[in-house]
TrEMBL record, chain A:
This is ABC transporter permease subunit. Belongs to the binding-protein-dependent transport system permease family. CDD domains: TM_PBP2. It is found in: Cell membrane. It comes from Thalassovita aquimarina. Residues 76-274, 353-545 form the ABC transmembrane type-1 domain. The chain crosses the membrane at residues 22-48, 80-102, 114-135, 155-180, 209-233, 253-273, 307-331, 351-377, 389-411, 417-437, 470-492, 529-553. It is a multi-pass membrane protein.
UniProtKB/TrEMBL annotation, chain B:
This is ATP-binding cassette domain-containing protein. Residues 3-233 form the ABC transporter domain. InterPro entries: AAA+_ATPase, ABC_SmlMolc_Importer, ABC_transporter-like_ATP-bd, ABC_transporter-like_CS, Mo/tungstate-bd_C_term_dom, P-loop_NTPase, Transp-assoc_OB_typ2. Keywords: ATP-binding, Nucleotide-binding, Transport. The keyword Acyltransferase does not apply. The lineage of its organism: Bacteria, Pseudomonadati, Pseudomonadota, Alphaproteobacteria, Rhodobacterales. It comes from the Bacteria. GO terms for molecular function: ATP binding. PROSITE patterns: ABC_TRANSPORTER_1, ABC_TRANSPORTER_2. The keyword ATP-binding applies. SMART domains: AAA (SM00382).
Length: 563, 342
């Protein structure tokens, strides 16, 4: 209120208010136009196309046809079973690791933390590739133990999906576990609760929302993931591969749109419930919490350490074997090492890697700027305007990448609008990547803005600084760590994502994850491994760069505080 | 002796948190551990609770040695500064939790919880979750939770520090009444000397991991053993031996033997009498009005002095005054805190 009053007072003396208004308009307007044009509009198109029948009229004919086909129901059933099984497995394993990390005392937690994020640094189909090298027909296990494991299909896909979903489950459950501080446990201890009771009465209830949240997130990740299903799913068709075969295989865009809308329903529902659960959890956050420091208890910690290490060993083995196999001369017959698979023989060679780096940089830079502008602009908007925009900005997370990609091809591959000019350009792929991960980027920046004390801005405003100056001098340095995180998050996701871009690549423009899939399709598995290793290398460098930059920013702000 | 700690020592790396500390608590006694932050008072409380292990020394309750007993088997109650209620349990479930663990029948638990909620004057909150309550309410419930199991010792770790001034004063007197009514031996950690003076039967004043002085609030206030205690327990005028010898040698009469540096004189501000006198040796520098009393800063032959008087006194800033200090008003304290103005 004081801020508004001040603005009004300043307005009577100077034309600044107009400048600020204009800046607010630009800050909100540009990102908003982006959201409308590159998210809402394509989503409307995909919806319309799902209602467009073969003769060009509108109707529910496509739905009737899809719902009447046994293939769709089989894929739906498979998707739900796979989603459910993966959710159970990754939440259980995720809880074990999160509990080990935050509630047990043993060495090597840094290793576990490092290994657990590995699947996030690779395209999702790398888990599938690794499993094939390990357990496939020519895998190490079958070869050396004379087994006959059949990895393609349900079990292979289950393991690949679990590995892919596990990092998220660990992070979400871990965040819930650290909510309970040390004093709460000590109070229970002094009251007389045994460690087992403390686990049952404190830890489990505290983790409840985290577990629920993790379950919805892993379910969504699993049913929307395309990479693993494409590589290791075999005959086990799921909705994501069903969309792909409708669109790419049969060029049946409208039917693909219908399946896409069907895939959208459970993810929207699950996203909504997840957001509600998050709100409940945030309400419980304690102030001045003392972090819990577990003391060593052999009976609890030794088995937990063993379990955590075993899970991490599995993740490490699956990812590591891809790197190893990329250097093996002839898998699995001649295990001597050679760099020859790094000579990519598929048309285009490494060009798709370079273009992916370029695309990722564009998505990261443009995306970070867009969410930053939106964040600044939203602070100046009245609540009635702010809330619908916030809702819109948080929506893309509910849309599976496959559906967004399909929406893009339907929208931008149509010559009806000038937007057609974007089709087949790297810019469009950068745009789809940004809007695919818009929600996470937006929420991260908003979290940063929430920590900005309003008094700081008001003080600067009352000293006569305009909105632009405040944004550059006050807000940007304060939210810099968030912006760095957002930039690298968008970069790393853009490097590895497959589902949204799979429809947007053309014979002249491919991205890294699609190249890996094509190499694998062509039977050049070792080259697929080599290409994957290169992608992981780039992402790892980006991750280290982010850590270094964040550490630098942290040191700088610590120094400023000390001065 | 009900609870005794003998020769307790605790180090964290090179930092000695407790250095050969011995204390005791009588049955029904309210004891305050008082000292600045980092003096070891919280470490001592946590050792007694069993939340931290001793390096050396011994803790006994009546004739039972506690040192090897885990915290959950000691039968104590504890209240932390941060309330630390169980966030997923209602107020009633929080208070009844200790009884539930002890397999008390549900109807007995319900009755006991009702009784305690009456006692802390919050009977209407039974079904609320802690997150919805104010700090003062949460801390009352934490207190009820701690005493629900009839603890053998009640441990309070700065229970009032996180509360607003008004709530703090209310809860302070409630804690005192409860403790008196129930007769539970209580050990409270605080860095607030006023709180300690108001609550304690016995104050244990600590500094640098050792006990500096233990005794009744009156003892610590009027007969501090050391300069540190005199300084920590309210305002005091600390005057060096040489100055006293020059200005008013009769105050030396009760001084223990020792070098000039070994002891300093401690004179409480309310024990100095002032009379306006144009030929008086001291001058009023400033007068602070504190409602029930006035705090007057003087320039005197002793150096700067603080004097507190009740009621009105006829003097202005710049006025000359006569000082009256009786030898009884002067306590000689060991100069443990060498350096600084005396």
């Amino acid at each position: 209120m004081t801020g508004a009053a001040q603005t009004a007072r300043v307005a009577s003396r100077s034309p600044r208010i107009d400048g600020d208004r204009l800046l607010t308009l630009v800050c909100v307007g540009l990102p908003l136009i982006g959201l409308l044009l590159f998210f809402l509009y394509p989503m409307a198109i995909v919806f319309l196309r799902s209602l467009t029948t073969a003769d060009g009229s509108y109707g529910l004919g496509n739905y009737a046809e899809v719902l009447g086909s046994s293939g769709f129901w089989r894929a739906t059933r498979h998707s739900l079973i796979m989603g459910g099984a993966t959710t159970v497995l990754s939440v259980v394993l995720g809880f074990v690791i999160a509990h080990g990390l935050y509630r047990c005392a043993f060495r090597g937690k840094r290793v576990i933390r490092a290994v657990i994020v590995l699947p996030l640094l690779a395209p999702s189909l790398v888990q599938a590739l690794g499993l094939i090298f390990l357990l496939g027909r020519n895998g190490l296990m079958n070869r050396f133990f004379g087994l006959e494991i059949e990895i393609y299909g349900f079990w292979g896909l289950l393991f690949a999906n679990t590995l892919y979903a596990l990092p998220q489950a660990v992070m979400i459950i871990g965040a819930a576990l650290v909510l309970l501080d040390a004093r709460t446990y000590e109070a229970a201890e002094v009251i007389g609760a045994t460690p087992a009771r403390q686990f049952r009465d404190l830890t489990l209830p505290a983790a409840r929302f985290g577990i629920l949240n993790a379950a919805f997130v892993t379910f969504t990740i699993t049913i929307t993931d395309f990479g693993n299903a494409a590589v290791i799913g075999g005959d086990y068709s799921v909705l994501a591969t069903e969309i792909y075969s409708q669109v790419i295989g049969q060029r049946n865009f409208n039917m693909g749109a219908v399946v896409g809308i069907m895939l959208l329903l459970p993810t929207v529902l699950s996203y909504y419930i997840e957001r509600q659960a998050m709100k409940r959890q945030q309400g419980q956050q304690a102030t001045n919490a003392q972090p819990f420091v577990p003391l060593f208890a052999a009976l609890r910690d030794l088995p937990m350490a063993g379990l955590c290490l075993a899970i991490c060993a599995a993740i490490g083995a699956v990812i590591g074997i891809v790197v190893y196999a990329s250097f093996v001369r002839l898998w699995p017959y001649n295990l001597s090492l050679t760099p020859r698979h790094y000579d990519i023989t598929l048309a285009g060679g490494y060009s798709s890697l370079w273009i992916t780096i370029l695309i990722s940089l564009m998505a990261a830079a443009g995306g970070t700027l867009a969410v930053f502008l939106l964040g600044i602009g939203l602070r100046r908007l009245p609540r009635a305007l702010m809330q619908p925009i916030q809702l819109l900005a948080a929506m893309p997370a509910a849309v599976p990448g496959m559906v967004l990609g399909l929406a893009y091809i339907l929208t931008f591959n149509s010559t009806a609008t000038p937007l057609y000019l974007l089709y087949g350009t790297a810019a469009l792929i950068a745009i789809v990547n940004f809007y695919h991960y818009h929600t996470q980027a937006f929420l991260t920046v908003m979290t940063g803005f929430r920590q900005l004390p309003p008094a700081l801005e008001e003080a600067a405003g009352s000293l006569g600084a305009g909105m632009g100056r405040i944004a550059v001098n006050i807000i940007a340095p304060f939210v810099a760590p968030m912006l760095v995180s957002v930039f690298f998050f968008l970069f790393m996701r853009s490097m590895v994502t497959l589902s949204a871009v799979v429809f947007l690549t053309t014979p002249h423009l491919s991205v890294a994850a699609v190249t890996i899939m094509r190499l694998d399709d062509a039977g050049l598995t070792s080259q697929a491994a080599a290409f994957s290793t290169c992608v992981m290398g780039v992402v790892c460098i980006a991750l280290l760069g982010m850590k270094a930059l964040l550490a630098y920013l942290g040191r700088r702000s610590a120094r400023e505080k000390a001065d | 002796m009900y609870l005794t700690v003998r020769n307790a020592t605790k180090t964290y790396g090179t930092f000695t948190a407790l250095d050969d500390v011995s204390i005791s608590i009588e049955q029904g006694e309210f004891v305050c551990l008082l000292g600045p932050s980092g003096c070891g008072k919280t470490t001592l409380l946590r050792l007694i609770a069993g939340l931290t292990d001793l390096d050396a020394g011994e803790i006994c309750l009546e004739n039972e040695t506690l040192s090897a007993l885990p915290a959950r088997k000691r039968g104590f109650g504890i209240v932390f500064q941060s309330y630390s209620l169980f966030p997923n349990m209602t107020v009633a479930e929080n208070i009844g939790y200790g009884l539930k663990i002890r397999h008390v029948p549900a109807d007995k638990i319900a009755a006991r919880v009702r009784e305690l909620l009456e006692l802390i004057k919050l009977p209407y909150l039974a079904d609320n979750l802690p997150g919805q309550l104010s700090g003062g309410q949460q801390q009352r419930i934490a207190l009820a939770r701690a005493i629900a199991v009839d603890p053998r010792v009640l441990l309070l770790d700065e229970p009032l520090s996180a509360l607003d001034a008004k709530v703090r004063a209310d809860l302070r007197s409630e804690i005192r009444q409860l403790q008196r009514a129930l007769g539970i031996p209580t050990l409270m950690v605080t860095h607030d000397q006023e709180e300690a003076l108001a609550l304690a039967d016995k104050i244990i004043c600590m500094n640098h991991g050792t006990v500096v002085q233990a005794g009744s609030p009156e003892e610590l206030y009027h007969r501090p053993a050391t300069r540190f205690v005199a300084d920590f327990m309210g305002i005091s005028n600390l005057i060096g031996t040489a100055v006293i010898r020059d200005v008013q040698p009769d105050l030396l009469s009760n001084r223990p033997d020792g070098t000039d540096d070994a002891y300093v004189a401690c004179i409480r501000p309310e024990q100095i009498a002032l009379t306006p006198d144009n030929n008086g040796p001291a001058t009023v520098r400033s007068i602070g009005f504190l409602g029930n009393l006035r705090r007057i800063d003087l320039d005197s032959p002793f150096g700067p002095l603080v004097v507190e008087t009740h009621g009105s006194i006829d003097c202005r800033e710049g006025q000359s005054v006569q000082l009256t200090i009786t030898p009884e008003a002067c306590t000689w304290v060991a100069n443990d805190d060498a350096g600084g103005a005396a």
